[in-house]
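This week, study the protein below.
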Amino acid sequence: MNIATGSRRTRLFTRHAAAAGLCAALLAVSACSSGDEDGGRGYSVPDRLCGVDVGGETLEPLLPDGERLAERDSGSAPGSLRCALTVDERPALSVVGDVLNTDADPFADADWYLRLGKDAAPKDGAQYRGTRIMDRFAFTVKECAYQGSARKYAVLVELGESKPMPEDVADRREALKEFINGFVPSVLKAQGCS
């Protein structure tokens, strides 16, 4: 029997198989794209982070695509700040901040040293002040007055373990710089470190 002129059953089967294949292809395409105009974000970028106002426009480029964003506060104490953002239960961004004595070296603190790594420490062992931008983190130390005493405040912003955003390292460093420069003044104000 010739398939082109085959039985009615063969022609119906062929049409149904083609229709099923087309439906499967359309479902695969729609499953792979989120349908979200923001490039795959099913969540809103927050205006607050760690209880502190943050410009969502500076936080947005650092966050990956995903469906669900959650913030975990790690129990901040007076003068300190600890929180993390996850996207779809994967670490996306964390923030650590501490009021320090003027002679304290955050690189000498075991927790900071482990987070930052030896390559981030100043080469000469001098007290570090200013901002340092690396591929996956931004670190800044600002002098301020806290509860009537001269202090300094150190803030570390660290990108998650999964694929960091933006993907391009130069763009990521610029986004980290913009974020930390906008966020730290709000942190200092919220922590009473002026």
